[in-house]
Amino acid sequence: MSSSGVAIWCGSTNSATEEGKELNDPRVLTDVGDVPVQEIRDCGVDDDRLMSVISESVKLVMEEDPLRPLVLGGDHSISFPVVRAVSEKLGGPVDILHLDAHPDIYDCFEGNKYSHASSFARIMEGGYARRLLQVGIRSITTEGREQGKRFGVEQYEMRTFSKDCHFLENLKLGEGVKGVYISVDVDCLDPAFAPGVSHIEPGGLSFRDVLNILHNLEGNLVAADVVEFNPQRDTVDGMTAMVAAKLVRELAAKMSK
């Protein structure tokens, strides 16, 4: 089990979410195991096949109606195969709320079209999302902005967050599509709240900013992921594991509604 998975059930907290949902009921939150990504890669499987394995694994979970997948990364490359699986299984596109310091929308990054920095380009070009809202952005290149315009992405940068926060904390998504998908890159948070990430970028969201957005969101949440927690860099008393764990708990409660 991942460090964030262990932190979910550690003795320093309890199983209740802020809005009073008890997560110790397996009907609310159940661990269905890991996709052995590294083992598959070590067997020489190419990236296309690896993406397919992840997608098919998510579809298997969704066979157990009404299970809704909440996937823990890993890096952000997993969002593409997970969103693809959800969209294909439900029979249409979803709306995506993406919380991140980076847009992860390069057409190809360092020669890899399935890079963690390219996942949302693959999602949008595949038609798996109708709307993509990216919140917390504060490290974006010219290509990132151009790709955003190309795909009609709604990019909300931190430099304008004070102006946009009321809108972002009262979102209504998913009408006319198959539901809402939330992707949380832990580095959407300012490193003061979550230093245990691979790509530290100052000037981010507070933890309460993120919870306000998640708690107030209106829409049918059909799937989610929490990614980019790096336990090797989580050297401050496991603080980032606890942050990721609380994000998982609050998302699970939101999905169970």
Automatic annotation (TrEMBL):
GO terms for biological process: putrescine biosynthetic process from arginine, via agmatine. Its cofactor is Mn(2+). The keyword Ribosomal protein does not apply. GO terms for molecular function: agmatinase activity; arginase activity; metal ion binding. Mn(2+) binds at residues 76, 100, 102, 104, 185, 187. Pathway: Amine and polyamine biosynthesis; putrescine biosynthesis via agmatine pathway; putrescine from agmatine: step 1/1; Nitrogen metabolism; urea cycle; L-ornithine and urea from L-arginine: step 1/1. Binds 2 manganese ions per subunit. It catalyses: agmatine + H2O = urea + putrescine; L-arginine + H2O = urea + L-ornithine. Gene3D superfamilies: Ureohydrolase domain (3.40.800.10). Pfam families: Arginase. Keywords: Arginine metabolism, Hydrolase, Manganese, Metal-binding, Putrescine biosynthesis. Catalyzes the hydrolysis of L-arginine to urea and L-ornithine. The latter can be utilized in the urea cycle or as a precursor for the synthesis of both polyamines and proline. Possesses agmatinase activity. Catalyzes the formation of putrescine from agmatine. Belongs to the arginase family. Agmatinase subfamily. This is Arginase. It comes from Gossypium raimondii.
